[in-house]
Structure formats: structure tokens, C-alpha cells
Amino acid sequence: LLTGDPPVNATLTVGGIELQVTCVSMGNPHCVTFVEELNDDLVLKIGPKIEKHEVFPRKINAEFIQVISPDEFNMRVWERGSGETMACGTGASA
Fold it and tell me: Is 65 helix (H, G, I), strand (E, B) or coil?
């Protein structure tokens, strides 16, 4: 997953779930996935598994994004080493 250029729309299997992810660096690593619905189960159970996934040996931040409309989305962030965070500037930029 991490050989060569950062992955775009790559498949990452986490906790038995296949996610389509895009990884970017904003000075720190981020793994972004678009989801149909944001919920605690997804963020609190899958977030730490993405953070510590074997393909990210230095750990990674995880962003879960739900598109509401072309002009609006909801996002929740699992920050590496901190857990869910209510504000993340680099996560919003990712």
C-alpha cells in the first residue's frame, strides 16, 4: 500500500471491513476515507485500527468523511496517539 507514490483510492482491509482510502501528508500522515454514515462504532473501533495498521509503521491519522451535498460534509478524526479529536486543522486540509 505504501510503496511509491502515496495511495489514492486504495483498498485497505481493517477489522474485516474493506475501505477505499487516500493517504496524504500534511507534514504528518493522514488516511482519508469517505463513508456513507458517520457513527461512533466506525470512528471509535476502526479509527484506532487504521492508526496502528501494519502498513503504517509510524502510525497515521484517520479521517472519516460523510458527504452531505456538493458544498457540505461532516468529518470525524482519529488522531494518532490522541484518539478522537474535535478539531484538527491538518485533518481538515487533508
Answer: strand
Q: Which residues pair with 79 in a beta bridge?
A: 83
| pLDDT per position as a tens digit, 48-70 | 999 999 999 999 999 999 999 99
Among 49, 59, 69, CA closest to 23: 59
CB 73 within 8 Å of CB 66: yes
Q: Could you tell me the three cell numbers for 73? A: 460534509
Q: Per-residue DSSP letters for 7-27?
A: PSSEEEEETTEEEEEEEEESS
In three-state secondary structure terms, 18 is: strand
Are 9 and 49 a contacting pair, CB within 8 Å?
Answer: no
Q: Under CATH, to which class is 10-93 assigned? A: alpha beta
Distance of CA 9 to the CA centre of its chain: 12
